[in-house]
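Data availability excerpt. The first of two example chains:
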Amino acid sequence: MVEQQGPDATGQQKRRQLVRAVIASAVGTSIEWYDFFLYGFAASTIFAELFFPTSDPTTGLLLALGTYFGGFAARPIGAAIFGHYGDRIGRKATLIITLLSMGIATALVGLVPTYEQIGIWGGILLTLLRLLQGISVGGEWGGSVLLATEWGKSRGGKRGFLGSWPQFGVPVGLVLGYLALQVFQPIDPYWGWRIPFLLSIVMAAVGLYIRLGILETPVFAKLVAENKVERVPVRQVLAKNWREIVLSALLRTGQQAPFYIFTVFILTYATKTLGFEAGDVYTYVIVAGLVSLVTVPFWGYISDLVGRRRLYIVGAALMVVWSFIYWPLLDTRVPSLVFLAIVLAAPIHDIQYGPQATFIAESFTGRLRYSGASLGYQLASLTAGGPAPLIAVWLYATYQSSFAIAVYMAICSVISIVAAFALKDRSQQDYAVEYDEVKPTTG
């Protein structure tokens, strides 16, 4: 039975639930992304030596990042699994499951023995836990976005701003993940890096407490009341909206690939190639994450004023240009310019990231929205986010030049521009009415 407020709920009650839903979305995604990023940072700086020791440092790094990629490969699986249940049993119940599974998987990473203790089994266990992390994240994002946006106004309103708060969880998780490693890693050579992973179980408990206090979204409650819940939503959305799923994945290419280069590959590049101290690079990326705490919701808000598609195209076009500025700034090896490059990457990236969640979610009708948005969003993990650090490592090793990485980022951004032009902008369409029951008012 779906827990809901009903049509007679007062405006004050609805506003209170909206605030709770936004907080629950932001806090929940912050915890999920803390877990996910923490693994990525450790894979870039720690895991190669502890779990994949080889005579060739590049090979060890690629093996460590390979387990990192495994989490991305699992995300579409999580999108399909939890998308199905999110459209069948509701947004709230599904989000509780994703939060718990992520917290448990991350805490267990902190207990995995090293290569010296159990040989290759340490790497195998890491990979399996990373897959569970990926499945959890694959289901988390879609539900968090719908929890926030489906409590807002069904037409117009501030959906772009509301949908930016689950995205806000990404820089929060980024900052917390970096800070945790920076604070705890020096404490003890064996337990230091493990403590941030073990703390995940405490954070998951806090997130669970918050999520238990919210109600189901009005959009899903309406679907239940009208008996419009799909029996097999994933199959239906693949049949009816395959085009929107593909375009959503392509839309993310120019945002996601650069993002994981800016936040994961940069750790290796700045320390191993440019010769910077790891602590300095951590600080630079933390500052960039703090900037995103402001610019992600800001650009979400701006998308409500100018339209999702228009703003997204501007952001992707700027990323093309920035790709050829970012690397020359880094390659100067001048600390102030390296700092500038890392920090400025955040607000430029966020022009796409702020409105992205709502742009994608609006592309799917309510009864298929969790499945469709999740699949479209997470498929990009296979083609963009997951491979990006690996491709960057390979490009630099092959061409001994960052220019090749710049070209790669620019191509990804052009793909996003084309996809944004092809995807309908439904900023002003009624979010609570099934799209196939009415003629769209905007193209």
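And the second chain:
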Amino acid sequence: MTDTAKQDSQIAETPFGKRRMKPRACIVESKHHVRSLLSEALEEQGFIPHACATLDDLDTSLRSDFPDAIVISFSMNGLAVSDILNLLAVRACAASVLLIGRPDAPAVKAACELGKNLALDLLPVLPTPFSDKDLHARVAALVPAEPPSPPVDVAEALGAGWLELWYQPKINARSLSLGGAEALIRMRHPNWGIVPPSHFIPDADDPHFRALSDFVIGRVFQDWRYLVAKSGSIHISINLPLAFFTDANAVEVLRMQFPNHPAFDGLTVEVDGSEVVQNLPLAVEAAHRLRFHNIGLSIDDVGTEWPALAALNEFPFAEIKLDRKFVDGSSSARLKRSVCRQIVDLAKSHGVKTVAEGVETRDDFLAMHGIGVDFIQGFLFGKPMTTRKFARNSRQRPAFVPVA
């Protein structure tokens, strides 16, 4: 397949014209846990991964799926890499080939020589252990730069079972220990791979928003049961529109689905700060109702709205989350830092916890730590991840160290 043909394979006809599809990666590995780890890592890089555990599986895939990348991991007692490379040559596979292993290992050197002799498109070897940055450096050229915009509505996604929840850690700003997690919705589209919510979340007044909220409530408690079994109890936050609480039965809907488990310590519901300011009476009333059932109402994305909150005579909210627009770059922007400090002071005056969102640099972390934020959330400590990966990470990392 020529470079042009390979590019065309990533173009899809949609009702809105032609758009590029996400690339596909075929992982050739006999060990289940290695396949799972590589699938998650490639998914985060923008691929639609699938795995082949045997040479027959790979042969079938090459005849029908036309992957853009073939990923081969060197593991003891795994598939023979030479057999894999020879099969790729026999099938005239035009996919880029990524070998994962120690570059100085004799088997890796031999595989590189064989790949060159077979005229395969070899990417630079990915050394083990590898970081997300290392993987990105090898495969970035295969991933379209523009984000997907699939013409998929929520009703179709719900009916097809494409929706799931991912979890981003909330880190205690003092101890750097795990202090909770926010559940974030994702779509796993069959052609577009993992799609962020900005491409499919409807407006709060859309009739499908209630169905989406019901999905989130049902799934989060399923995931909590999995997490508590795999890595211990974790306090989870979910996002709901404030309009959800116009229903007199809304709180009961939440309470009735609580896990009957001694480790369950309640739930936090995050509502957008602009919605709260636009309807303060409803927000205050909902917060009062919720806390009788150990459900805290968190005000999300608080920035310039904070003076309206400061004017409240009563403050039944459990948490304030600082808008990432004011957190990002706060270390070097006095005005941003001033807004964040005023929000933190407001929260402290009411005995309310604060979370700084969108922390991506050490300097911004230190700025937020300095003004007294209670929790940190952002790529510096962890991206949103699948339930399984979150469980594995929280089990293996008693303290979260900044990644950059």
